[in-house]
Amino acid sequence: MSEPLSIKIFLAKGSSSSLRTAEISNWSGKAIASSRKELNELSKREEASSPGVYFLIGNDIDTGEPSAYVGEAEEVAKRLKQHLNKDFWNQVVAFVSKDENLTKAHIKYLEGKLIALGIEAGKGVIQNSQSSGAKLPESDQAEMDIFLDRILKLLPVMGTNLFSTPSKKESGSTDKLIFKIKDLTAYGNRSEDGFIIYQGSQAVLEDRPATAKNKGGHYQRRRKLIDNGVLEESDGYLLFTRNYEFTSPSLAGAVV
Q: Is pLDDT of 178 > 80?
């Protein structure tokens, strides 16, 4: 069971999609977020002049899928203004430290971890490729892993679950639903954010003719899962190489 957390959210304009901040009790970090059109207002806030990691959130221009870009900066506000040439995003979320103890190495480490988590989760398009991150002393790494955990707790509250992966409890569930098609079997179950298909499940190798012809959303999702190594061809079918969480049972079934 996850630990209980007390989160304090301040809506500067009374709207959950406008300028807002969020904090977790007994944590040195702070989240600040806004819509794209409020970037100038966000940039004027004291927190935005600090070092931190940030997320540009929107929809991929080519596929329409949820999308995010992960970055780091020693002065978040200054760096965010350099991203106005990217058209896909409409929301921004940044995480800084209230005690000003985040170094360049710290934020590079967090950036690398977050990009890897976003790619692993596979829930949308991560706009940047894998970051090299940064190597930290053991004590600093332990501290940043706690900071990372808090970021992951706040991100869904601040507007995106692209970096969320199934909990160990969900992934290890013994109460599995079974789906059979064309002598193939897939196992899954509902999760907090949708529906998990478990590692070892099978999916049909060939897309339905109409799906392949139209090259719509389900076709694109299967291609993406193959490209990312979530699905691998094995003896005439596709095999799930790891647990994968879909946003709904119907999407999971369509991909299988």
A: yes
